[in-house]
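Hi R.,

Here's the chain you asked about this morning:
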Amino acid sequence: MVSRQAPGEIYNKALSIQHPDRDWILTRILWLEGSEERNQNTKDRYIYIHGSPDETIMGKPGSKGCIRMRNKDVVELFENVQIGEDVVIMKS
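And the predicted structure, written out as tokens:
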């Protein structure tokens, strides 16, 4: 996804090298709409929970505001939440 449009690309290492600053969105997207005053604009800012390439380092900030997950984990999450359901994001 690039600006909420599917660019018609299939992720691969060559594309990753060609676009080193892209925050790759793979597998699934949970589009967030903040409920607290400080994050009510997340939907307008394109903030998601999304799948990422296998080689992406997890557990460290690195996206442009999104929460990145392993593809298998975001697929499981996607299958267990409903549209409009609250998602609580907590730092462990």
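The longest strand covers residues 26-31.

Let me know if you need anything else.
M.
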